[in-house]
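W.,

You were right to be curious about this one. When I first looked at the sequence I had no strong expectations either way, so I just let the prediction run and decided to look at it fresh. Below is the sequence, 403 residues in total, followed by the output.
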Amino acid sequence: MPSFQYAARDRSGNSTAGVIEAASQREASVLLSGRDLFPTEISEHHRRGWTFGAPRRPKAKGQAMAVFYGQLASLLRSGVPLIRSLALLGDQSSAPVLSEVLGDIRARVEDGEPLGDAMARYPGVFSEMATNMVRAGTEGGFLEDALERVGTFTELQEDLKGRTISAMAYPVFLFTVGSVVISALLVFFVPKFDMLFDRLRQKDQMPVMTEALLTFSRLLQSYGWIVLVAVAVAALAVRSKVSSDAGQRWLDKVKLKIPVLGDILMNLAVARFCRVLGTLLGNGVPILKSLEISRSATGNRLLTESIASATENIRSGESLAAPLRASGHFPLSVVEMIRVGEEGNSLDRVLPEIADSLEKRTFRRLDLFVRLLEPIMLLVMAVLVLAVVMALLVPVLKSSTSL
């Protein structure tokens, strides 16, 4: 059904705006009149939300969403009606995408659509976990608590993402700068020495390291563009491969096999799973539905498959801990704590504690890894530059002593 964007005034003269679905502008005007709104402008609206055949999904930043969930929970807890709360947050939002989405959601809620269903139309803005928790909170009468937990969880995830990116930023910077410096030396600086060493080359006194360096420099200077094209083609090939399910599974498997970093990535993925599952269970979402949602939060196909297998065990009346242990992807300490939580019927409390513990341990390891990686990369860069300088300096010294 077509959508129409409108601007209108209520009986008190207050201005309001939003989006409404109707077969025509005339019907949209009638629907607005039924809400005691007097439209001043109605125009066709090209929805950017998720509908079948729509090529784009609106997206919002995680930090903005964490603030939205917390503010909505506070407004509802203070007694502000849901529709009024959505209108206030939509008007004061600094993100145009979120403001537009909230306008559409408010219109849908006014038409009687449940809040969770309206949020589900925008998967790029509201995660599946948030949508299901809002549905559970609406049905169970604890919507404010559900929104507050979603906001806390979203903020923790954004903090986790930010700490990971900031930890890896300096090593990536060192690698990029080092690669550029070494490439510039080989392409622009080293070839200038080629003619100076002709006498040594004629006397067959050219050091092997120097000859190898000059040969590599000539090749890079002459065929460097081929190398760049090959790297670009390889990158496109890898990107095409990992876009498939089999390729993504292969990439996830490779990630987990990287020394040191593989364990860090594994623990972070397990921590995300535990936090999402614990949050969902704590908000009354059934365990099977919670497992279906939380398994996608790991970001790793191997873990997702292990959790899917565990879901089948739960469906058959068995425990969750046993298949997780058999997969070999979950730390034994985590599996044991899950088993204790199952026996004590306290998974909703134990799982967030597991996530907290895993994240603390993992970030200590990540900090240590980054601290070791920085001097190692500096040392590698220094060794490479020293090798280039020595390869050029040795024949110069030979030439000076032979005079």
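Here's what jumped out at me. Confidence is low (pLDDT under 50) at residues 47-56. And, maybe more interesting for your project: The first strand starts at residue 3 and ends at 9.

Coffee later to discuss?

I.
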